[in-house]
Prior knowledge:
The protein is mostly helical. The chain has one domain. It contains six helices and no strands. Helix 1 packs antiparallel against helix 2, helix 3 runs antiparallel to helix 4 and helix 5 (100-111) runs antiparallel to helix 6 (117-164).
Amino acid sequence: MIKLMGSVCVFSGGALIWWMQRAERRRKRDTLLDLLAALRRMGEEVRMARTPLPQLLEALSKTCGREAASFFRETADAARRGGDLPKAWGEAAERLPLSQGDQTALAALGQNLQGDEESVCKAISIVIYGLAKSAEAAEQSRRSEEKQATALCFSAAALLVILLI
């Protein structure tokens, strides 16, 4: 009976690890998609409505998921206080659950937000293109990564169960 309970606990641990990895991948994907949508909207607002940056960032924070909303809220606060926006933008980008390349590209955008309309829109478009390619690549590899993670977690848990019995 004790071996059976131990086996159930070990197998449950493997399932929990699998579930946590899947949730982390989903969190990264959702954050990336939220940022893409928000940056597209940001480009349109800069080009068409010419909304002031603090108001635009605050509006974007209300339309995004939790991670992206926090990013835009932090940068809006820095812009409203008159602080160093590129620095605040870069620091907030580093805390996002994205790949290192995506974080770097997004952080570099902060340096270009203080130029004229044309350069800001161009910089936003470049970052959108890079993030979209990253999202596409992640989506293409998602299925195989999920299969590998599932096989690894449940095989390891099954092996431990067999060893315990």
